[in-house]
Amino acid sequence: MPFERPDLIALIDRAQADMDSRLDGAPWLRRRLLAVLARMQGGVAHGLYGYLDWLALQLMPDTAEVEHLNRWAGIWGVTRKAATKAASYAVFPAAAGAVLPAGTELLRADGVRYLTLADVAEHEGQVRVAIEAAEAGLAGNAGAATPLQLAAPVLGLEARGVSDGEITGGADEESDAGLRARLLTRIRKQPSGGAMRDYVAWALEVPGVTHAWCYPGEMGRGSVTVRFCMDETYADGIPHPDDVARVQAHIEGLRPVTADVYVVAPVPYPVDLDLRISPDTPRVRASVTAAVWAQLRREAEPGGVVVISRLREAISLAEGEEDHVLLSPAANLHLATGRMAVPGSITWEDSDDE
Length: 354
Prior knowledge:
Elements: H1 8-21, H2 33-58, H3 66-75, E1 87-93, E2 99-100, E3 105-108, E4 113-116, E5 120-121, E6 126-133, E7 147-150, E8 160-163, H4 176-188, H5 196-204, E9 211-216, E10 223-229, H6 241-252, E11 260-264, E12 267-278, H7 282-299, E13 305-306, H8 308-317, E14 323-328, E15 333-334, E16 339-348
Parallel strand pairs: 10-11, 12-16
Antiparallel strand pairs: 1-6, 1-8, 2-5, 3-4, 3-7, 4-6, 7-8, 9-10, 12-14, 13-15
Protein backbone atom coordinates (compact mmCIF):
# COMPACT_ATOMS: atom_id res chain seq x y z
CA MET A 1 0.00 0.00 0.00
CA PRO A 2 1.49 3.39 -0.96
CA PHE A 3 2.24 5.85 1.82
CA GLU A 4 -0.07 8.85 1.94
CA ARG A 5 1.33 12.03 3.43
CA PRO A 6 -1.15 13.52 5.94
CA ASP A 7 -2.16 17.12 5.36
CA LEU A 8 -1.83 19.90 7.92
CA ILE A 9 -5.43 19.64 9.18
CA ALA A 10 -5.05 15.91 9.79
CA LEU A 11 -1.83 16.46 11.74
CA ILE A 12 -3.45 19.13 13.92
CA ASP A 13 -6.42 16.82 14.60
CA ARG A 14 -3.99 14.03 15.56
CA ALA A 15 -2.18 16.31 18.01
CA GLN A 16 -5.46 17.41 19.58
CA ALA A 17 -6.65 13.82 19.86
CA ASP A 18 -3.39 12.78 21.46
CA MET A 19 -3.61 15.57 24.05
CA ASP A 20 -7.29 14.88 24.66
CA SER A 21 -6.58 11.20 25.36
CA ARG A 22 -4.31 12.24 28.23
CA LEU A 23 -6.68 14.82 29.75
CA ASP A 24 -10.20 14.73 31.13
CA GLY A 25 -11.92 15.34 27.80
CA ALA A 26 -12.63 19.03 28.38
CA PRO A 27 -14.01 20.83 25.32
CA TRP A 28 -11.50 22.29 22.83
CA LEU A 29 -11.98 26.03 22.72
CA ARG A 30 -10.51 28.02 19.86
CA ARG A 31 -8.39 30.20 22.18
CA ARG A 32 -7.41 27.40 24.53
CA LEU A 33 -3.64 27.09 25.07
CA LEU A 34 -3.66 23.39 24.16
CA ALA A 35 -5.32 24.23 20.86
CA VAL A 36 -2.46 26.60 20.07
CA LEU A 37 0.10 23.97 21.03
CA ALA A 38 -1.65 21.39 18.84
CA ARG A 39 -1.43 23.73 15.86
CA MET A 40 2.24 24.35 16.53
CA GLN A 41 2.95 20.63 16.77
CA GLY A 42 0.97 19.94 13.60
CA GLY A 43 2.89 22.63 11.71
CA VAL A 44 6.26 21.20 12.80
CA ALA A 45 5.20 17.68 11.83
CA HIS A 46 3.91 18.93 8.48
CA GLY A 47 7.31 20.43 7.69
CA LEU A 48 9.09 17.20 8.63
CA TYR A 49 6.72 15.16 6.47
CA GLY A 50 7.43 17.55 3.59
CA TYR A 51 11.18 17.04 3.98
CA LEU A 52 10.77 13.26 4.08
CA ASP A 53 8.55 13.44 1.01
CA TRP A 54 11.27 15.42 -0.83
CA LEU A 55 14.02 13.16 0.49
CA ALA A 56 12.23 10.08 -0.84
CA LEU A 57 12.54 11.52 -4.36
CA GLN A 58 16.30 12.02 -3.95
CA LEU A 59 16.79 8.37 -2.98
CA MET A 60 16.08 7.26 -6.55
CA PRO A 61 18.11 8.47 -9.55
CA ASP A 62 15.05 8.68 -11.80
CA THR A 63 13.41 11.33 -9.56
CA ALA A 64 16.42 13.04 -7.93
CA GLU A 65 16.82 16.79 -8.32
CA VAL A 66 19.95 18.40 -9.69
CA GLU A 67 22.25 18.23 -6.63
CA HIS A 68 21.49 14.60 -5.86
CA LEU A 69 21.27 13.73 -9.55
CA ASN A 70 24.87 14.91 -9.92
CA ARG A 71 25.87 12.76 -6.94
CA TRP A 72 24.15 9.71 -8.39
CA ALA A 73 25.84 10.32 -11.74
CA GLY A 74 29.21 10.68 -10.02
CA ILE A 75 28.75 7.39 -8.18
CA TRP A 76 28.12 5.62 -11.49
CA GLY A 77 30.93 7.41 -13.30
CA VAL A 78 28.67 9.46 -15.57
CA THR A 79 29.84 13.06 -15.97
CA ARG A 80 27.56 15.90 -17.00
CA LYS A 81 28.66 17.19 -20.41
CA ALA A 82 30.07 20.67 -19.97
CA ALA A 83 29.32 23.57 -22.27
CA THR A 84 31.91 23.95 -25.03
CA LYS A 85 33.12 26.91 -27.05
CA ALA A 86 32.70 27.21 -30.80
CA ALA A 87 35.89 27.65 -32.80
CA SER A 88 37.08 28.23 -36.36
CA TYR A 89 39.25 30.67 -38.32
CA ALA A 90 38.75 34.29 -39.31
CA VAL A 91 40.24 36.26 -42.19
CA PHE A 92 40.86 40.03 -42.23
CA PRO A 93 42.37 42.14 -45.03
CA ALA A 94 45.68 43.57 -43.83
CA ALA A 95 48.47 45.90 -44.89
CA ALA A 96 52.02 44.64 -45.27
CA GLY A 97 53.67 43.92 -41.94
CA ALA A 98 50.46 44.12 -39.89
CA VAL A 99 50.06 41.79 -36.91
CA LEU A 100 46.81 40.66 -35.30
CA PRO A 101 47.56 39.99 -31.59
CA ALA A 102 46.27 37.03 -29.60
CA GLY A 103 43.28 37.89 -27.43
CA THR A 104 41.86 40.43 -29.87
CA GLU A 105 38.09 40.62 -29.50
CA LEU A 106 35.90 40.12 -32.56
CA LEU A 107 32.19 40.84 -32.73
CA ARG A 108 29.40 39.19 -34.68
CA ALA A 109 26.47 41.30 -35.88
CA ASP A 110 24.28 40.07 -33.01
CA GLY A 111 26.91 40.87 -30.38
CA VAL A 112 28.40 37.40 -29.87
CA ARG A 113 32.10 37.78 -29.05
CA TYR A 114 35.10 35.79 -30.26
CA LEU A 115 38.77 35.94 -29.28
CA THR A 116 41.83 35.32 -31.43
CA LEU A 117 44.05 32.48 -30.17
CA ALA A 118 47.48 33.46 -31.52
CA ASP A 119 49.59 36.32 -32.83
CA VAL A 120 49.32 36.21 -36.63
CA ALA A 121 51.26 38.33 -39.12
CA GLU A 122 50.00 39.50 -42.51
CA HIS A 123 50.50 37.10 -45.40
CA GLU A 124 49.55 37.90 -48.98
CA GLY A 125 47.39 40.84 -47.95
CA GLN A 126 45.44 39.20 -45.16
CA VAL A 127 45.68 37.56 -41.76
CA ARG A 128 44.09 34.19 -41.05
CA VAL A 129 43.78 33.48 -37.35
CA ALA A 130 42.23 30.78 -35.15
CA ILE A 131 39.31 32.11 -33.13
CA GLU A 132 37.19 30.83 -30.27
CA ALA A 133 33.91 32.04 -28.83
CA ALA A 134 34.35 34.06 -25.65
CA GLU A 135 31.41 32.26 -24.03
CA ALA A 136 30.63 28.56 -24.19
CA GLY A 137 27.32 27.47 -25.69
CA LEU A 138 25.33 26.98 -28.86
CA ALA A 139 25.17 30.72 -29.49
CA GLY A 140 28.78 30.72 -30.69
CA ASN A 141 28.08 28.48 -33.69
CA ALA A 142 27.74 30.23 -37.04
CA GLY A 143 27.84 29.53 -40.75
CA ALA A 144 30.70 29.98 -43.17
CA ALA A 145 31.66 33.53 -44.18
CA THR A 146 29.93 35.03 -41.15
CA PRO A 147 30.80 38.76 -40.96
CA LEU A 148 33.07 39.64 -38.03
CA GLN A 149 34.29 43.03 -36.85
CA LEU A 150 37.21 44.11 -34.69
CA ALA A 151 35.96 45.39 -31.33
CA ALA A 152 38.87 47.88 -31.29
CA PRO A 153 41.07 49.11 -34.15
CA VAL A 154 44.30 47.21 -34.92
CA LEU A 155 47.03 49.01 -36.84
CA GLY A 156 47.21 47.85 -40.45
CA LEU A 157 44.01 45.77 -40.38
CA GLU A 158 40.62 46.51 -41.87
CA ALA A 159 37.87 46.47 -39.26
CA ARG A 160 35.65 43.98 -41.09
CA GLY A 161 36.45 40.37 -41.86
CA VAL A 162 34.69 37.01 -42.17
CA SER A 163 34.89 33.55 -40.70
CA ASP A 164 36.90 31.12 -42.80
CA GLY A 165 34.58 28.13 -42.78
CA GLU A 166 31.84 27.31 -40.31
CA ILE A 167 32.21 28.17 -36.64
CA THR A 168 31.34 24.90 -34.92
CA GLY A 169 31.81 22.98 -31.70
CA GLY A 170 29.71 25.13 -29.38
CA ALA A 171 27.31 23.25 -27.12
CA ASP A 172 25.28 24.11 -24.03
CA GLU A 173 25.76 22.31 -20.74
CA GLU A 174 23.92 19.01 -20.67
CA SER A 175 20.39 19.29 -19.30
CA ASP A 176 19.17 17.38 -16.27
CA ALA A 177 16.98 15.26 -18.56
CA GLY A 178 19.95 14.34 -20.75
CA LEU A 179 22.16 13.45 -17.78
CA ARG A 180 19.38 11.41 -16.20
CA ALA A 181 18.80 9.46 -19.42
CA ARG A 182 22.49 8.59 -19.73
CA LEU A 183 22.68 7.67 -16.04
CA LEU A 184 19.71 5.30 -16.28
CA THR A 185 21.21 3.76 -19.41
CA ARG A 186 24.49 3.22 -17.53
CA ILE A 187 22.63 1.53 -14.66
CA ARG A 188 20.51 -0.68 -16.89
CA LYS A 189 23.16 -1.56 -19.47
CA GLN A 190 26.53 -2.36 -17.97
CA PRO A 191 29.70 -1.68 -20.04
CA SER A 192 30.73 -4.80 -21.94
CA GLY A 193 34.23 -4.08 -23.21
CA GLY A 194 33.22 -2.90 -26.67
CA ALA A 195 29.65 -4.10 -27.20
CA MET A 196 27.38 -2.11 -29.50
CA ARG A 197 25.86 -0.20 -26.59
CA ASP A 198 29.33 0.86 -25.43
CA TYR A 199 30.00 2.72 -28.69
CA VAL A 200 26.63 4.45 -28.42
CA ALA A 201 27.38 5.48 -24.83
CA TRP A 202 30.84 6.78 -25.79
CA ALA A 203 29.44 8.87 -28.63
CA LEU A 204 26.78 10.35 -26.34
CA GLU A 205 29.51 11.51 -23.95
CA VAL A 206 30.64 14.13 -26.49
CA PRO A 207 29.02 17.56 -25.96
CA GLY A 208 26.26 18.27 -28.46
CA VAL A 209 25.57 14.64 -29.42
CA THR A 210 21.91 13.74 -28.85
CA HIS A 211 21.52 10.36 -30.61
CA ALA A 212 23.97 7.68 -31.70
CA TRP A 213 23.83 4.30 -33.44
CA CYS A 214 26.34 1.48 -33.84
CA TYR A 215 26.66 -0.85 -36.85
CA PRO A 216 29.21 -3.65 -36.40
CA GLY A 217 30.77 -5.22 -39.48
CA GLU A 218 29.41 -2.65 -41.92
CA MET A 219 32.88 -1.85 -43.29
CA GLY A 220 34.12 -5.41 -43.13
CA ARG A 221 35.09 -7.97 -40.54
CA GLY A 222 36.27 -6.40 -37.30
CA SER A 223 34.90 -2.97 -38.19
CA VAL A 224 32.50 -0.82 -36.20
CA THR A 225 30.61 2.09 -37.74
CA VAL A 226 29.19 4.79 -35.49
CA ARG A 227 26.70 7.40 -36.68
CA PHE A 228 25.29 10.20 -34.57
CA CYS A 229 23.10 13.30 -34.62
CA MET A 230 23.24 16.73 -33.01
CA ASP A 231 19.59 17.81 -32.92
CA GLU A 232 20.14 20.79 -30.64
CA THR A 233 23.01 22.18 -32.72
CA TYR A 234 21.80 21.94 -36.33
CA ALA A 235 18.35 22.29 -37.86
CA ASP A 236 18.55 18.88 -39.56
CA GLY A 237 20.64 17.29 -36.81
CA ILE A 238 23.35 16.19 -39.26
CA PRO A 239 26.82 16.72 -37.76
CA HIS A 240 29.56 18.56 -39.65
CA PRO A 241 33.08 17.23 -40.36
CA ASP A 242 34.59 18.92 -37.30
CA ASP A 243 31.96 17.26 -35.11
CA VAL A 244 32.70 13.87 -36.65
CA ALA A 245 36.40 14.37 -35.93
CA ARG A 246 35.69 15.16 -32.26
CA VAL A 247 33.57 12.05 -31.77
CA GLN A 248 36.15 9.91 -33.59
CA ALA A 249 38.92 11.23 -31.35
CA HIS A 250 36.87 10.56 -28.20
CA ILE A 251 36.04 6.99 -29.17
CA GLU A 252 39.62 6.28 -30.22
CA GLY A 253 40.70 6.71 -26.61
CA LEU A 254 38.11 4.22 -25.34
CA ARG A 255 37.67 1.52 -27.99
CA PRO A 256 39.18 -1.98 -27.79
CA VAL A 257 42.60 -2.02 -29.48
CA THR A 258 41.49 -4.59 -32.06
CA ALA A 259 38.44 -2.67 -33.30
CA ASP A 260 38.53 -0.77 -36.57
CA VAL A 261 36.21 2.16 -35.83
CA TYR A 262 34.62 4.46 -38.42
CA VAL A 263 32.68 7.49 -37.20
CA VAL A 264 30.58 9.00 -39.98
CA ALA A 265 27.70 11.42 -40.30
CA PRO A 266 24.34 10.14 -41.56
CA VAL A 267 23.53 11.11 -45.13
CA PRO A 268 20.42 13.33 -45.06
CA TYR A 269 17.40 12.11 -47.03
CA PRO A 270 14.84 14.95 -47.25
CA VAL A 271 11.28 13.69 -47.02
CA ASP A 272 8.89 15.85 -49.06
CA LEU A 273 5.17 15.76 -48.39
CA ASP A 274 2.21 16.46 -50.70
CA LEU A 275 -0.57 17.29 -48.30
CA ARG A 276 -4.17 18.50 -48.22
CA ILE A 277 -5.61 19.72 -44.91
CA SER A 278 -8.85 21.16 -43.59
CA PRO A 279 -9.21 23.85 -42.49
CA ASP A 280 -6.41 25.16 -44.69
CA THR A 281 -5.25 28.23 -42.75
CA PRO A 282 -1.77 29.60 -41.98
CA ARG A 283 -2.15 28.68 -38.31
CA VAL A 284 -3.15 25.09 -39.03
CA ARG A 285 -0.37 24.77 -41.61
CA ALA A 286 2.18 25.88 -39.02
CA SER A 287 0.75 23.48 -36.45
CA VAL A 288 0.78 20.55 -38.88
CA THR A 289 4.30 21.36 -40.06
CA ALA A 290 5.66 21.39 -36.50
CA ALA A 291 3.85 18.17 -35.57
CA VAL A 292 4.78 16.11 -38.62
CA TRP A 293 8.44 17.14 -38.63
CA ALA A 294 8.74 16.52 -34.89
CA GLN A 295 7.41 13.01 -35.46
CA LEU A 296 9.84 12.43 -38.32
CA ARG A 297 12.83 13.63 -36.29
CA ARG A 298 11.75 11.62 -33.26
CA GLU A 299 11.86 8.27 -35.07
CA ALA A 300 14.50 8.95 -37.71
CA GLU A 301 17.38 6.48 -37.80
CA PRO A 302 20.12 5.85 -40.38
CA GLY A 303 18.97 3.10 -42.71
CA GLY A 304 15.57 3.07 -41.03
CA VAL A 305 11.98 3.16 -42.23
CA VAL A 306 9.70 6.18 -42.44
CA VAL A 307 6.33 4.80 -41.37
CA ILE A 308 3.63 6.76 -43.16
CA SER A 309 0.90 5.87 -40.67
CA ARG A 310 2.95 7.59 -37.93
CA LEU A 311 3.13 10.76 -40.02
CA ARG A 312 -0.63 10.65 -40.61
CA GLU A 313 -1.17 10.22 -36.87
CA ALA A 314 1.01 13.25 -36.12
CA ILE A 315 -0.93 15.33 -38.64
CA SER A 316 -4.23 14.26 -37.10
CA LEU A 317 -3.07 15.29 -33.63
CA ALA A 318 -1.94 18.74 -34.75
CA GLU A 319 -3.87 21.57 -33.13
CA GLY A 320 -6.70 22.86 -35.31
CA GLU A 321 -6.56 20.04 -37.89
CA GLU A 322 -9.95 18.51 -38.67
CA ASP A 323 -9.20 16.42 -41.74
CA HIS A 324 -6.30 15.71 -44.07
CA VAL A 325 -5.15 13.64 -47.02
CA LEU A 326 -1.48 12.70 -47.32
CA LEU A 327 -1.12 12.36 -51.09
CA SER A 328 2.61 11.65 -51.11
CA PRO A 329 4.44 9.61 -50.03
CA ALA A 330 1.80 6.92 -50.18
CA ALA A 331 3.85 4.05 -48.74
CA ASN A 332 6.55 3.51 -46.16
CA LEU A 333 10.03 4.73 -47.15
CA HIS A 334 12.84 2.20 -46.68
CA LEU A 335 16.11 4.10 -46.56
CA ALA A 336 19.46 2.80 -47.76
CA THR A 337 22.36 2.17 -45.42
CA GLY A 338 23.57 5.38 -43.81
CA ARG A 339 20.72 7.56 -45.08
CA MET A 340 18.53 9.26 -42.51
CA ALA A 341 15.20 11.00 -43.01
CA VAL A 342 15.19 14.75 -42.40
CA PRO A 343 12.39 17.29 -42.93
CA GLY A 344 12.02 18.33 -46.57
CA SER A 345 9.34 20.55 -48.05
CA ILE A 346 5.54 20.43 -47.90
CA THR A 347 3.39 21.07 -50.96
CA TRP A 348 -0.02 22.25 -49.80
CA GLU A 349 -2.72 21.12 -52.17
CA ASP A 350 -5.93 23.10 -52.55
CA SER A 351 -8.56 21.50 -50.35
CA ASP A 352 -11.15 22.05 -53.10
CA ASP A 353 -9.20 19.97 -55.62
CA GLU A 354 -10.36 16.49 -56.29
